[in-house]
Amino acid sequence: MSIFTAFTKNNLAVFSRFSYFYESFESYCTVNDLRNSVIVLKYMLLCKIMSNETGDVHSIVHGKAGVKFAGIEVEALLAVANAHKKRSLKSFEQVLHKYPAQLGNDPMIASHIHDLYEKLLEQNLIRILDPFSVVEIGHVAKLIDLPVDRIQTKLSEMILDGKFNGILDQGAGNLIVYDAVEEDATYEAGIQTMKELNIVTDCLYDKARRLTHQ
């Protein structure tokens, strides 16, 4: 089976978008356009991070092309990849504080970095809540080292979005945890991942395409 037949139609779209970034990157390198080379390189790295392909991020950064454009811009995306791989909320926050300009000045990158952080927060909350049937929201906030209001708001969002099965008893300051509803989690997760990757790569593709016409 060829690599192309191994992909679904949506997967192939993701693969094609990264290929476009790579081709754009090579074009900018050929004409020694440092500014746009770095921008597209960052989009390439972000695509890999969003696809959970951290190993590829390291290969790109430490490869010939990555070394040529080494600097704080690329360093910031590598730090994001490392924090994301460790699933460490604290490490992710440290990266955001260390590289505010590199991760915040480009609205496209800032938006997706924010999404990565929110998903990581959700994953950490679900892991913390797993042993409990009832737990104080303040205790959860202490365990995850975030303000109570922030945790209460996030839990409310997760419940409303169907990402967590439970209710908030705000009068008592507790979270009541229900057993998860049985479902085909693998299928649902796969569908959701494909949708999110398509949105991400479409946005990055449009941004890179505009750069080529500047």
From TrEMBL:
InterPro entries: 26S_Proteasome/COP9_Components (IPR050871), PCI_dom (IPR000717), Rpn6_C_helix (IPR040780), WH_DNA-bd_sf (IPR036390). It comes from the Eukaryota. Residues 6-182 form the PCI domain. PANTHER family: 26S PROTEASOME NON-ATPASE REGULATORY SUBUNIT 11/COP9 SIGNALOSOME COMPLEX SUBUNIT 2. This is PCI domain-containing protein. It comes from Spongospora subterranea.
